[in-house]
Amino acid sequence: MTLQTQAVLRALLVKPAEELYGLQICSMAELPSGTIHPILARLESAGWLESRWETVDPSEQGRPRRRYYRLSPDGSERARLALAAASAKRSMLRALNPGLTGGATA
Amino acid sequence: VKFARRNSESETLDARSRGAHLVRDLALARDIARAHAAALASDLGRARSLTKNVTLTAAGSRNLIRTAHSFAVDIGHLYFSARRLDQAVADGALSLDYSRALTRQLVIDMSLAAQRACGFAYDTSELVGCLHAAGKNAEALVLTLDEQASPVESAVVAVRVSKPARWVMTLALRALPVMERSRYAEEWRSELWDLAEGPGSQRRQVIHALRTMACAVPQRSSIRQGRRRAAAGGG
Question: Which residues of chain A, if any, have pLDDT below 70?
Answer without folding.
Answer: 98-106
